[in-house]
């Protein structure tokens, strides 16, 4: 089978309720063409529909997390997006469950925008991140220009957008974009540790919390009180909430049913 039909994106369950998704085009620095985006969307769809999966980790094979769009493919009109979920098969419509970016290597251009589509980021101390598009007379249209200033201060985001310069993972950590910086080779392990903590929480509450936090940027505070309840009310009425209360009173670990 050709690369477009086989293994450009792989996935495996690495811990209970935890899915590891790997972009598997190391010879292309894990850049995305159309086939890779479609494969990625398929994996994201499977993650979202599987009630036993609660957290997904995204990483890249080889020395680079992702170089973004495959420019050679773009030159012949083959862009790394899908009609339904958008850029890279995830940027436009994200799953209703958390995504962790495990960045073992550079995350540039669409690679950083893929991180911005995730909810948490773990990166290596050797990682460089940035959106270099403007320096090449391009525009970062994978969400970088409107998501980045929601995650870090406006003037810092503007400098990165206009100069195209990359910065270290430590730099992004000090502004809050990267949750944790670890030594090279330890990124996936650190992401799995974080994922296990999330997987131990009530899955319905986690999904509702993800949705509320993602939307909080766009809600006025006067509206947020009622808007949050669209996601919180079904959780409060769930069996899991009752189980969580009972487990706390009985001083035991809860057993979640996801309902």
Automatic annotation (TrEMBL):
Keywords in alphabetical order: Lipid metabolism, Lyase
Its domain of life? Answer: Bacteria
Question: What InterPro entries does this protein map onto?
Answer: ClpP/crotonase-like_dom_sf, Enoyl-CoA_hyd/isom_CS, Enoyl-CoA_hydra/iso, Enoyl-CoA_hydra_C
Endpoints of the signal sequence: none
User: Is Protein biosynthesis set as a keyword in this record?
Assistant: no
Similarity comment: family membership: Belongs to the enoyl-CoA hydratase/isomerase family.
Question: Which NCBIfam families is this protein grouped with?
Answer: PRK08252.1 (NF006100)
Mind telling me what this protein is named? Crotonase/enoyl-CoA hydratase family protein
- Look up and give the organism this protein is from: Microbacterium koreense
